[in-house]
Structure formats: structure tokens, C-alpha cells
């Protein structure tokens, strides 16, 4: 898979792309990253990429023509935007199956709507808040996608039955938060590991994990549980 990132600040991606899973994924040949500096396509001596909004208002707008020149010839184009669709695990899985994803990092007050209308396939938001730029959302998208590409993680089961993945319950598939995890030592500051996890009874362990997933989802994300109950 190839992921191209159009940004005014390519340097902020270097440490992330060359660390941990993302670095190993590149070494394995599972993914390649292309950093495209939008400033390289700017106009005039100062490489200008933005201008004042028609109709007045605060901030500056990224120019449509500059963004269009920076686009690769093909690929699924995503714009990081506070006004985009909420990013979900299902979308990460969908993106991980693409051959080429292009992420345009929004910046300043916004992007000329004509560029969005003609070139952008999807606008994506990572939450109901506003950031100074689209670089951090782009990193979130990149990280969430790369770990899902087959062969990137050493153990494929690592991406099964985790938060926002599908759980099987009574032969149906539901989205729940992940159950709690424990490791050595068996006792930490007087608190013991739940007995069932030490029993070796995989059937009972599976039941316990499902119960804990349901309990955590009810406490932390009751909205997800409501969706589950509607389907039962």
C-alpha cells in the first residue's frame, strides 16, 4: 500500500514514520509513505499557498489551484477536516485495503470548497474539536491503517477482539470496547489477577472477557451498547 501525505509541515512526520510499527511496515515492504510539501507548489517568490476568504472573515484559505497541483495522479483522496465524518475503526479497515491513499492535511481557516468538490473523495474528522492543522489527524489515520495491513503485525490475532472491532456474541457480531488485560506479577500492590485468567479454562475465560467488555462498554460508551441492544 502507498500513502501520500500533502502537508505544509512534512518534517513533523519524519519521527513518526521512522519509529516502531510504521518503520517495520516499510522495511517489510507492506507500506510506503510519500511526503509532499505543499509549499513546493506555492506561487511567487514567497511560495504563497493561501489567500483571504471571499466575503470576509478571520483566517486564510488554502488555494484550490495549489492543492490541485500537489495531487498525485491517482489514489483515494481524503481531507482531514473538523467538519468531516467521524473516523471509525470500520473506516480504518476500509482504508487499509486500498492500493493508494492520499491524505490532504487541512490548515489555516480551511480549504477552498472548489477543490473539495472536484477532488476530495472524503472529509475525515478524528473528533468533535478543532486543531491548528490536519497533520495530527493524518498521523492518527496512518497509524490506524498500517497496523491493519496483513503481515505488518507479527501476530494477526493482535487486531482481533480489540476495542471497536467486532465481537461474536450469540452468533452475532457487535462492536464493544476491549476487556481488561493483566500480566505478571500475579499480585500488584495487594490486587490480584482475576482467578479465571489463571484457570486455564478457555471457555470460562472467553465468557469473562465478554462480560467485562459489556460492562466497560456500558460504563464508558453506553451509546455503543444501545446500538447492540437495538440489534438483539
Strand order of the largest sheet: 2-1-6-5-8
Number of domains: 2
Order of helices and strands: EHHEEEHEHEEHEHEEEEHH
The outline comes out as: elongated
| Residue runs with pLDDT of under 50 for 5 or more positions | none
Please, how many helices?
A: 8
Q: How many β-strands, per DSSP?
A: 12
CATH C-level of the largest domain: Alpha Beta
Helix content: 25-40%
Architecture per CATH nomenclature, i.e. the level-2 architecture of the largest domain: 3-Layer(aba) Sandwich
Q: Strand percentage, roughly?
A: 15-25%
In short:
The protein is built from 8 helices and 12 strands. It has 232 residues and is α/β, with parallel strands linked by helices.
Overview of the molecule:
By secondary structure, this protein is an alpha/beta fold. The protein folds into 2 domains: 2-146, SPOUT methyltransferase, trefoil knot domain (Alpha/beta knot, 3-Layer(aba) Sandwich), CATH 3.40.1280; 161-231, Trp Operon Repressor, Chain A (Orthogonal Bundle), CATH 1.10.1270.20. It is built from 8 helices and 12 strands. The chain has helices spanning 14-17, 20-27, 64-70, 89-96, 113-119, 135-146, 202-220, 222-231; strands at residues 2-7, 32-37, 50-51, 61-62, 76-86, 100-105, 110-111, 122-125, 166-169, 172-175, 187-188, 191-192. The strands form 4 sheets. It has a 5-stranded parallel β-sheet, with helices on one face. A 3-stranded mixed β-sheet has the order 3-4-7. A two-stranded antiparallel ribbon has the order 9-10. Strand 9 and strand 10 form a beta hairpin. The longest helix is centred in the C-terminal third of the chain and has 19 residues, at 202-220. It is elongated and about 70 Å long. The mean pLDDT is 91.
Amino acid at each position: 500500500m502507498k500513502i501520500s501525505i500533502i502537508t505544509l509541515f512534512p518534517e513533523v512526520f519524519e519521527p513518526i514514520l521512522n519509529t516502531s510499527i510504521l518503520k517495520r511496515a516499510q522495511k517489510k515492504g507492506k507500506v510506503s509513505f510519500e511526503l509532499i510539501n505543499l509549499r513546493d507548489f506555492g506561487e511567487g517568490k514567497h511560495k504563497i499557498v493561501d489567500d483571504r476568504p471571499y466575503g470576509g472573515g478571520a483566517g486564510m484559505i488554502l488555494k484550490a489551484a495549489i492543492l490541485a497541483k500537489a495531487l498525485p495522479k491517482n489514489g483515494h483522496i481524503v481531507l482531514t477536516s473538523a467538519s468531516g465524518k467521524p473516523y471509525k475503526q470500520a473506516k480504518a479497515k476500509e482504508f487499509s485495503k486500498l492500493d493508494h491513499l492520499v491524505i490532504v492535511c487541512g490548515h489555516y481557516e480551511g480549504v477552498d470548497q472548489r477543490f473539495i468538490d472536484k477532488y476530495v473523495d472524503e472529509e475525515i474528522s478524528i473528533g468533535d474539536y478543532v486543531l491548528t492543522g490536519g497533520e495530527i489527524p493524518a498521523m492518527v489515520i496512518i497509524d490506524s491503517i498500517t497496523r491493519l495491513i496483513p503481515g505488518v503485525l507479527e501476530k494477526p490475532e493482535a487486531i482481533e477482539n480489540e476495542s471497536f472491532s467486532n465481537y461474536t456474541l450469540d452468533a452475532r457480531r457487535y462492536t464493544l470496547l476491549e476487556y481488561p488485560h493483566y500480566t505478571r506479577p500475579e499480585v500488584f500492590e495487594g490486587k490480584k489477577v482475576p482467578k479465571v485468567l489463571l484457570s486455564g479454562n478457555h471457555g470460562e475465560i472467553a465468557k469473562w472477557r465478554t462480560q467485562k467488555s459489556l460492562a466497560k462498554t456500558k460504563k464508558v460508551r453506553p451509546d455503543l451498547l444501545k446500538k447492540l441492544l437495538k440489534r438483539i
